[in-house]
Design brief:
This protein is α+β, with helices and mostly antiparallel strands. It contains 6 helices and 16 strands. The protein has 2 domains: about 5-170, Probable tRNA modification gtpase trme, domain 1 (Gyrase A, domain 2); about 185-300, Beta Barrel (Elongation Factor Tu (Ef-tu), domain 3), CATH 2.40.30.160. A 6-stranded antiparallel β-sheet has the order 15-12-13-14-11-16. The protein has a 5-stranded antiparallel β-sheet with strand order 1-7-10-9-8, with no helix packed on it. The longest helix is centred in the first third of the chain and has 12 residues, at about 80-90. About 45% of the residues are buried.
């Protein structure tokens, strides 16, 4: 990425495309531990977790960045378009657990910080998913985008926004693509097991924890060599969006992949995260929408894929 791109990815952006589910009560961590792909029982106050909520067949229904505000309060940051149905579905499993789930969007503000804007707010460990609190404000370190540090800022809605130059929300959305981590949204509900979006390689799945919906399928995909798809970073000159199909020009009969998330690139064209058949990733004939569609160019992922967990 050029220096001008680095310059564009500096500042503070409001994240109105995200929402927050709050889990409160003495069983909050225990309940989420039994529903999501992460270990919330052992989650410390100085760390966050990437996690997925799966169907019984192991397919992702939602994804979260989760962290504890206290030992009895956990916030789950997710795509806003999925918040209501996800909250409804999670609430079905509460039963006798001492936990209350609620939509906390009106109670908190969410901002994305990129580059030097992070230093203006707080000192935070450089590793992804580290967390620091300053009063009622929380800062979570995210995966970088092309080497530019990024963080998630969460605070009560009554707090003043974080200091820093304004960053376009569109540029922030592009930075999400360049970080290599897709957020589950409505067009891709039920489309992928977590490994198809590389969640096991970016701290999104704990294979040592106990049961959760879809756990057996997720584990089998990992340990029995049945995984056929991975997430790849790609560039296209034509517009594309989550849910679009990807084809191999040599096979028009069926798609070989699906766009998981996409955004306009500052230098022109569009960048995307696509879940693609591993066998198709070695070729150069990827096309959008149909075998004769616009060409897709695969780019290097910003992290290594973990094969041995």
């Amino acid at each position: 990425m050029s220096d001008s791109f680095h310059g564009s990815l500096q500042g503070v952006a409001p994240l109105t495309h995200l929402g927050i589910i709050r889990a409160e009560g003495e069983d909050a961590a225990k309940f989420l531990h039994g529903q999501l792909t992460q270990d919330f029982s052992l989650l410390g106050l100085s760390e966050a977790r990437l996690a997925a909520f799966c169907s019984a067949k192991g397919r992702m229904q939602a994804s979260f960045i989760g962290f504890k505000r206290s030992h009895s309060e956990i916030l789950l940051v997710c795509s806003r378009d999925l918040l209501a149905p996800t909250l409804k579905r999670l609430s079905m499993f509460v039963l006798r657990a001492k936990v209350k789930l609620s939509d906390a969007c009106a109670d908190f503000s969410l901002y994305g910080l990129a580059g030097d804007a992070i230093k203006n707010v707080a000192t935070i460990a450089p590793s992804a998913w580290s967390k620091t609190d300053s009063g009622t404000t929380t800062l979570v370190r995210l995966y970088p985008a092309d080497g530019v540090p990024r963080a998630l800022w969460v605070a009560p809605a009554t707090e003043a926004p974080p200091a820093g130059n304004a960053l376009s929300p569109d540029v922030w959305l592009w930075s999400e693509i360049r970080s290599g981590i897709a957020t589950v949204t409505t067009p891709i509900i039920d489309a992928f097991v977590p490994q198809m979006l590389n969640y096991e390689s970016v701290g999104g799945v704990n294979f040592k924890k106990g049961c959760y919906p879809g756990q057996e399928i997720v584990a089998r995909s990992q340990f029995r060599g049945t995984l056929k798809r991975r997430a790849y970073l790609a560039h296209c000159n034509a517009p594309l969006q989550a849910g679009d199909e990807v084809f191999d020009s040599a096979d028009a009969s069926q798609p070989c992949g699906t766009v998981a998330q996409a955004a306009a690139a500052p230098g022109g064209g569009f960048d995307a995260l696509i879940s693609l058949q591993i066998s198709a990733a070695t070729g150069s004939g990827l096309r959008l929408g149909q075998a004769e569609g616009p060409a897709l160019e695969l780019l290097p992922l910003p992290y290594p894929l973990l094969e041995d967990i």
